[in-house]
């Protein structure tokens, strides 16, 4: 868990702060001699997470100790204790934040991450990773505690006994959000203008939205563009998609093309 008020840092960021390679940081376990440095990740997590505030303080104190040829006596800022609505939780921690009688199995919970019927909300924060074809890959997703609790409270079924019965439908369609529709249109417009150079980061800056939300908007715009291309060219290939959208990863382009073809089939 990343407590509210803490800036998370992974191994790469920690190594940059101390001016060493990430390989050296990991191989020597350079964090272990730093007294008081807290690991924020749960046991079994695939990524170490530190407090950036603690790392910066430790680095300053280490350099100061060098000047007098002494061993640093670390006095690091504390990490907040207890629970807060804005704590950041990884996928498994988010599941454990729910009341025990409302938790699904871990396997089902993981399926919710990319589900089509039941789907978790978009992550509030992604630590690390690289942006490839407008998508952040290799990072660790986190959700605010309140984001998960609000989602659970409003979803039908076990999380919300008062919700609509399974299989029921709205009697009236939800009113469209004009701001959301404007963002979608702007994303499509920017993709038409800059098909090979538009990234989620640039889109987030242009629309003033979170990077995770920008990723979704960019992907939706790309899927729409592929669908349009497919209408005019039924034999559209993966290579065509890569060329038209400036995509570098074949699997990303193939997935978009497959989804566009499936949507076209479903619409018939």
Please provide a brief summary of the model.
The chain is built from 11 helices and 7 strands.
Structural features, described:
A hairpin with a 2-residue loop joins strand 5 and strand 6. The strands form three sheets. A three-stranded antiparallel sheet has the order 3-7-4. The protein has eleven helices and seven strands. The termini are far apart. It has 268 residues and is mostly helical. 47% of the residues lie in helices and 7% in strands.
Helices and strands, with pairings:
Layout: E1 8-9, H1 11-18, H2 22-27, E2 50-51, H3 52-67, E3 88-89, H4 91-96, H5 106-113, E4 125-127, E5 130-132, E6 135-137, E7 140-144, H6 145-154, H7 178-193, H8 200-207, H9 211-232, H10 238-245, H11 250-267
SS-based class:
mainly alpha
The biggest beta sheet is recorded as: 3 strands, antiparallel
Overall residue-averaged pLDDT value:
85
Choose one word for the global shape.
Answer: globular
Query: Portion of residues in helices?
Result: 40-55%
Counting DSSP H or I runs of 4 or more residues, the number of helices is 11
Which ranges are low-confidence, i.e. pLDDT below 50, for 5 or more consecutive residues?
161-174
* Rg over C-alpha atoms, rounded to the nearest angstrom: 23 Å
* Secondary-structure element series: EHHEHEHHEEEEHHHHHH
